[in-house]
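Support reply, case 0932

Customer input (verbatim):
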Amino acid sequence: MRDGEPLEITALGDGGDGIADPGDGGAPVFISGALPGERWARASDGTWTCTQPRPDRRAPECPHFSICGGCTSQHMPATLYADWKRQRIVDALAAHGLTPDVRPLATIPPPSRRRATFTAAQTDSVTRLGYHARASHDLVDITVCPILVPAIADALDGLRSLARMLAPADGRLKVGVTATDVGLDVHVNGAGNAPNADLSARLAAHAQATGIARLIVDNTDIVQFAAPRIAVDNVDIPVPTGVFLQAAAPAEAVMIAAVCDAVGKARDLADLFCGVGTFALPLSRTAKVTAIDGESRAIAALDAAKRNTQGRKAVTARIRDLFREPLSRKELEPFEAVVIDPPRAGAKAQSEALAKSEVGRIAAVSCNPATFARDAEILAAGGYDLAWVQPIDQFVYAPHVELVAAFMRPGEKRRGGKGRGRGLRRR
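Our regenerated output:
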């Protein structure tokens, strides 16, 4: 490959980079921002320039795009974008010999992210707040962010001012923000010493003016004007600091519908890695649910939420580390269906136990196609059919993709329920 010689982009990588064949037997070339069908040339200084762009290339929504490392795909046309995200799941499953029905990507509007973690730093008299540049520790100071819900996007200046009051002279802060139904829940880490009484009073006043419902600095509670909460299926759930929530409420709604579809008419369910009850609470409309998670604060939030429900089946919430102590085949016997929503690492041990069980249906939720495909192969080897997979664009413009999948024991579809799909085909 010679400098100045254009290369044709033939595919997209998992991270959204364009891929070109250098034509000299060398390794594939990955070019940030390049799209299939385009031609790009490398200058002598190593930078790449598009010499023949696609006619349907989109203008990015954000002025920080290509500098900020948060988004990688604002320039993709809609069809290419949806196919790229879906294909990541198809390829991960195919690597494990699985070729199920992978449905089209369920799209989500961009301004939907209700939680974000910013980095903040003080340099001389300038306070920067934003995200890291791609593959770098450089901090991009952002003024807008089109993926955030308005409650967070409109508070960027206020959060920057908050960081200015707390940032150490030679360090960086992490500013975690969640938009809740009563205001922003903000947790700042890295400030060092606990704020004194004077600073705490100024922080509280600033929090109130910025729309912050609760402010915590490191391990110090500064102020709480209202207890943060979110509503799931019309049930108010208290939000413990630092406990996992789905990143986008519209995506959460699609996930709940898909999970309900996958479990069908089951009336006795286990919800594993249940968190604060995202699936347990909607499922309790028609089924008795045993909800299990290793995070005690999440279980406490679910316990508090279920006390406010009426006219639903029982939800039994239990604390248990499912990585160290997965439910055994014997413990799984009472359940007609299981929902499993593990972290990115997946749930290999619990999948092995499920593969040995007689549970009729499994609704699997994942944000990592690779670990999902590994666990799906375990379930398939145990006799489950992978009926369908629903990709969901929870992380708009990022390379990540969420999914919900339906596994069924043979004959389960004939016994009723709403599961759909062609079943599992193995190569």
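We compared this against your earlier run and they match. Two observations from our side: Confidence is low (pLDDT under 50) at residues 416-427. The first helix runs from residue 78 to 94. Please reopen the case if you see a mismatch on your end.
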